[in-house]
Amino acid sequence: MKEIDIHDLQLNPFDLFGRDWLALAAGNETDGCNVMTIAWGHFGSIWHQEAGKGVMPTAICYVRPSRYTKQFMDKEKLFTLNHFPSSYRKALSYLGSHSGRDENKIENAGLTLVFTDGTVTFKEADLVFVCRKIYAQDLQEDCFVDQALVDENYPERDFHTMYIGEILKVYSQE
Length: 174
Description:
Elements: E1 2-4, H1 13-20, E2 22-28, E3 32-38, E4 41-48, E5 55-63, H2 69-75, E6 78-83, H3 89-97, H4 105-108, E7 113-116, E8 119-122, E9 127-138, H5 148-153, E10 161-172
Antiparallel strand pairs: 1-10, 2-3, 2-6, 4-5, 5-10, 6-9, 7-8, 9-10
């Protein structure tokens, strides 16, 4: 993997999240880690950084309270968003439908852990965003302007936690 400048990226965030899917990973080599497939998220910018650095590049992702990955997201300062070539679609589907509480789903999906920059990623990923968690907030029912979204997406009222991460580094396969 080679570090690239975020401003050199040419990508479609709608495809990256909604069509291709990403693997959200958090944890460390000592205390363990977990990963889940996500299709909901955003890339953008918000808030000013230190003087002269401009607006902070960010990624936003969402995790339901029932997901095992959530405990790692809450505990860790860093997380990664990992994109894979289309040949790993089956592995991403596996990661999204099995729990790391019950099995080594990373190994069972045929992926190889790589610990770098104080967090976790995967040898097979072709694009990796290393993020520093800067904000976390549970979505709240009374904040939905369109209440039909609540009934459609949260019949159990198990609202996601939204995590905003500052994108610290981007890696790409050479």
